[in-house]
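Suppose you are handed only these lines of text.
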Amino acid sequence: MAVQEETTRPEAGEWAWHVHHDTLVERLIYSLEERILHIVKFKPPEEQELRLRLLRVVKVELPVELIALDKTLEEAREDTLKYSCDDRPPELLRAYMDAEAAYNHFLGGPEMVALHAKECPDCPWDGETVFPRAGPTGSPFPRRVN
Ligand SMILES: [Zn+2]
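From them, the structure of the protein bound to zinc ion can be written out as follows.
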């Protein structure tokens, strides 16, 4: 059933663990296949095995709170993009930052920690990166500032 297989390939919009080294879970912007090709083509060879091992589509049903927070964040982002950088109303920027903070706060909460532990065993995620302290070759990675 080749057609059925085609429809089950992870595409943009689906949720996946560790799409980037500094994210726990996010919606794919491109298909999973495109992200894998990007990693193989552009990421340092010593990082690729871990990145490819941890990158996987979420199988569990994610909490409705996360879905709602993601929707709010996306809407806030779209609102800010209606304006040029210099003309963005402060209240829209504040709404975006608040939405981002709420989203990130939920990601670090006990519900997501438990789901992550269930689906991503033997994972070096430290709450900020899958490369704690330094990269595999000792090169430091930029830490996300929230
Ligand atoms: Zn993980």
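What can we learn from it? The beta strands are 15-17, 25-27, 56-57. The chain has a mean pLDDT of 88.
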